[in-house]
């Protein structure tokens, strides 16, 4: 006998096991552009904060949020650590950022939109004595402004900073949209030390992230559009970079993606964002301007190359 729809639904509800979905990580707030840092046994997850009223127009991002975890499963929320307009020279647009520690100070490199005296997107740097802040503008001006690079006519081609410190202490900042770039930083972490160089990375869009394991350097980045995450490997921070292919497929319901790769307690993790939060309680669902951070495991092959990420709804169990 065929069941009526209400009966079918109620029997399904009675027999279904509650889903323990852990990806995306948070549903009560939209989070994007994860920038994770491991420090003193804790994972600090800094995220952008999508506040667009819907998925029709564009990003609305005012501040950056912080979540921490000691097991990658339970997360404590610390709220906003900084607003884009805390940089007195910035108009707003708290886009992708990166946190790194050096000599007990925490440097927060951010994408923001510059005021009209130097129009376009810019990179700022803030500093604090603690990973929780309070963060203040480290130099009172932008570290990178749009007029410093002329590789594309776009005013958003200097975005998405990611900093890597070599074992010998040399620090480099990677950034860019459509043209990947990097520049050495002085030991004080807040001044450029030399010229901005370009990199050769196939299908590059944005969201550079550099990490090292054993004697291999890895650069991962958002490629094509809609964005997948691709990666390349090298034996030197200066390249040449050998393109290795797709690391993660289009993450679902958003054209952008942005990854962090960390190692924590002997395991490697791939942290990214999706548009997968469903509509609940009459609120608009996730999507391209209402993104949400997710985490899955990252595995290496014996030759050091990376296995393609398997995105899960369970997340880290
Ligand atoms: O979140 C705004 C921008 O979208 C970021 O800067 C890019 O990486 C992309 O995720």
UniProtKB/TrEMBL annotation:
Q: What is this protein called?
A: Glycoside hydrolase family 43 protein
Catalytic residues of the enzyme: 33 (proton acceptor), 206 (proton donor)
Task: Give the domain of life.
Answer: Bacteria
**Record carries keyword Acetylation:** no
UniProt keyword terms in alphabetical order:
Carbohydrate metabolism, Glycosidase, Hydrolase, Polysaccharide degradation, Signal, Xylan degradation
Provenance organism: Bowmanella dokdonensis
Pfam families named among the record's database cross-references: Glyco_hydro_43
| Family in the record | Belongs to the glycosyl hydrolase 43 family.
GO MF terms held by the record:
hydrolase activity, hydrolyzing O-glycosyl compounds
**Range of residues in the leader sequence:** 1-21
In this chain's numbering, which residues are marked as the site (Important for catalytic activity, responsible for pKa modulation of the active site Glu and correct orientation of both the proton donor and substrate)? 160
Q: Which GO terms describe its biological process?
A: xylan catabolic process
Statement: the UniProt record of this protein carries the keyword Endoplasmic reticulum: no
């Amino acid at each position: 006998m065929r069941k009526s729809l209400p009966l079918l639904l109620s029997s399904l509800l009675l027999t279904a096991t509650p889903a323990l979905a852990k990806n995306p990580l948070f549903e009560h707030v939209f989070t994007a552009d994860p920038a994770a840092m491991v420090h003193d046994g804790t994972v600090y997850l800094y995220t952008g904060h999508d506040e667009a009223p819907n998925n029709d127009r564009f990003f609305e991002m005012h501040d950056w949020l912080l979540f921490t975890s000691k097991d990658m499963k339970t997360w404590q929320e610390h709220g906003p650590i900084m607003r884009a307009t805390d940089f007195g020279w910035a108009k707003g647009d708290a886009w992708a950022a990166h946190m790194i520690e050096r000599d007990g100070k925490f440097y927060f490199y951010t994408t923001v939109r510059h005021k009209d005296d130097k129009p376009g997107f810019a990179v700022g740097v803030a500093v604090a004595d603690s990973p929780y802040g309070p963060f203040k503008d480290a130099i009172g001006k932008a570290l990178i402004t749009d007029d410093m690079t002329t590789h594309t006519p776009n005013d958003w081609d200097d975005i998405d900073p990611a900093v890597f410190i070599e074992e010998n202490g040399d620090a480099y900042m990677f950034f860019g949209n459509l043209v990947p770039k990097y520049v050495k930083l002085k030991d004080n972490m807040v001044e450029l030390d030399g010229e901005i160089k370009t990199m050769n990375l196939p299908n590059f869009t944005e969201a550079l992230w550099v990490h090292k394991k054993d004697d291999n350097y890895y650069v991962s980045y958002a490629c094509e559009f809609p964005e997948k995450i691709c990666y390349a490997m090298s034996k030197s921070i200066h390249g040449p970079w050998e393109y290795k292919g797709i690391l993660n497929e289009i993450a679902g319901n958003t054209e952008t993606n942005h990854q962090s790769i960390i190692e924590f307690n002997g395991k490697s993790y791939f942290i990214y964002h999706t548009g997968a939060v469903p509509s609940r309680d009459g609120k608009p669902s996730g999507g391209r301007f209402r993104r949400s951070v997710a985490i899955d495991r990252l595995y290496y092959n014996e030759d050091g190359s990376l296995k393609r990420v398997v995105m899960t709804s369970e997340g880290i169990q």
